[in-house]
Amino acid sequence: MSTSALHIRDFSEADWPKVWPIVQGIVLAEDTFTYDPAMTAEQAHGIWIAPPPGRTVVAVAGPRVLGTAKMGPNRAGPGAHVATASFMVAADARGRGVGTALLVDALAWAREQGYAGMQFNAVAASNAAAIRLYERHGFAIVGTVPGAFAHPSLGRVGLHIMYCGFT
Q1: Which residues pair with 140 in a beta bridge?
Q2: Over the stretch 7-26, which tens digit does the pLDDT of each residue have?
Q3: Which domains does the chain have, with CATH numbers?
């Protein structure tokens, strides 16, 4: 896929029928996200669509939604100066730069919004591709909760906390 064919834009409600299958597939796989695989489309919408000051985006190529991301403050109050983000890419679009484009967009947005950095709270230690991507873009593992993620085939693996500070 040509990255010039890929466009990141803000989510609109009309996108949900194309976003939900991506979310559902990832959640049902149970190998990267800590979401309940029994969640409904309505529950997923409530979790995935970030209200202001957050933002939800889609990565599209033509009419097709290839991925999605949500971003916003990691915590409220005294923690609101650090952003967080989550990313989901359609299974048949992985390895084609969609995740990278979503991450770059999220980092640019967080910097433009004045955040001091971005923190990921729960990156499965078994998600090697995501960890490599995040590290290439300045993230470091700052801690790991041992055995906190029940991977369907690997058993309990760690959940990494990753951070990228902005200077």
Answers
A1: 163
A2: 999 999 999 999 999 999 99
A3: 3-165 (3.40.630.30)
> What are the residues whose beta carbons fall under 8 Å from the beta carbon of 89, sequence distance 6 or more?
22, 59, 66, 67, 98, 99, 102
Instruction: Note the pTM of the prediction, 2 decimals.
Output: 0.95
Q: Quick check: 68 and 23 in contact, CB under 8 A?
A: yes
**Among all chains, which residue has been given the structure tokens 């599209």?**
60
Is the pLDDT assigned to residue 3 strictly greater than 90? Answer: no
Give me the residue label for tokens 């971005």.
118
To the nearest 10°, report the CA torsion of 19, 75, 119, 159. Answer: -80
* Cα–Cα dist 32/92, whole Å: 16
**Using CA atoms, how far apart are residues 114 and 156, in angstroms rounded to an integer?**
36
